[in-house]
Design brief:
Strand content: 5-15%
Shape: elongated
Number of domains: 2
Strand order of the largest sheet: 2-1-3-4-5
Structural class: alpha/beta
Order of helices and strands: EHEHEHHEEHEEHHHEEEEH
Number of helices: 9
CATH architecture of the largest domain: Alpha-Beta Complex
Oligomer: single chain
Helix content: 40-55%
């Protein structure tokens, strides 16, 4: 009699399907409250969309509030591209092409960097996918349209600001300088504690103290900057001593953006229209004192230049 043998028959289980690793890139152009709500909505929408698909594996959400015109400071986009380079993503979902970039060259650069690695980009608003060969041909045109739309928006904003200024209204962010806040009607009103700091800086300067001495005095007395920092910079003190807003005057368009694609601010030396509003708001510094400070600043600057020139000669 032959020995007993046992043969095990394994169940015929189909191989587990490969799950596509899907991520989403979400972006809004500003940090205003309504834009923040839009960003949260994008994140919630794409998170649910990915997690509800049984054929997809959640590969992450990359979300940020940055301008789409320039690549600078778009850290989440940089992180997304790095993960794409590392082979961790198969599909990237986006609300629209403009979320990727509003600059044609940057859009095409990102497109080539990602798509040539076999990664699919899907744009929900346009109902487009880079897996479609026709889309690849259309992409240059679509990116240019997004850039032109950004330019038009930029021009509309500039026109609106000029129009408001010509009507006697100007947009002013009071959070960038000490001494003022805004009332319910949007008018600048003095914050007395902060105004006393401004008056102190002007007085110390006219007593003969330099920027470093004023800085030391403020820090030793625990006086904070406009952003609440304990350490002052001499450049901040210098700007405060030249800020015409402290005499109730407002000058618009002191800087302007020459090229909306790079977004760099340039000093306005007559290139764009300016408005000067006298008695725009209540003054903290008397005009006479302000003018004396400007004259003293110029005198010290000339003296410093003369001293440096003499030192170079010797």
């Amino acid at each position: 009699m032959e020995p007993k043998t046992i043969r095990v028959i394994e169940p015929n289980v189909p191989p587990k399907p490969h799950l596509l690793r899907v991520a989403a890139y979400c972006r809004v152009s500003t940090e205003r409250e309504e834009q923040e709500c839009s960003l949260k909505a994008q994140v919630a929408h794409f998170t649910k969309l990915i997690c509800d698909n049984p054929e997809w594996d959640f590969a992450g959400i990359y979300a940020e509030s940055e301008s789409g015109v320039r690549m600078k400071n778009r850290h989440e986009l940089d992180r997304l591209l790095a993960d794409c380079d590392a082979g961790q993503i198969d599909i990237v979902l986006m609300k629209s092409i403009s979320r990727l970039s509003r600059n044609t060259l940057d859009t095409l650069t990102i497109y080539n960097q990602v798509v040539l690695k076999g990664i699919e980009l899907r744009f929900e608003l346009e109902h487009l996918s880079t897996n479609d060969k026709r889309v690849r041909k259309m992409f240059t045109t679509l990116a240019a349209v997004a850039q032109n739309d950004s330019w038009a928006r930029s021009e509309d904003i500039k026109w609106g600001m000029r129009h408001q200024a010509n009507k006697g209204k100007a947009i002013l962010n009071h959070n960038y300088f000490l001494g003022y806040t805004k009332d319910n009607a949007g008018h600048l009103v003095i914050v007395e504690d902060e105004a006393n700091v401004v008056r102190l800086i002007y007085s110390l300067f006219l007593e003969g103290k330099g920027y470093r001495q004023i800085k030391k005095h403020l820090e030793q007395n625990g006086i904070k900057t406009v952003s609440g920092k304990a350490e002052w910079s001499t450049s901040t003190i210098d700007r405060m001593l030249s800020n015409e807003k402290y005499v109730g005057r407002l000058i618009t368009q002191k800087t302007y953006v020459k090229d909306f694609l790079d977004g760099r601010q340039h000093k306005n030396t007559g290139e764009v229209q300016q408005q000067i509003f006298a008695n725009h708001h209540e003054a903290i510094i008397e005009p006479e004192m302000f003018e004396i400070v400007q004259q003293e600043k110029q005198r010290r600057s000339l003296k410093q230049d003369t001293t440096q020139e003499m030192q170079m000669q010797y």
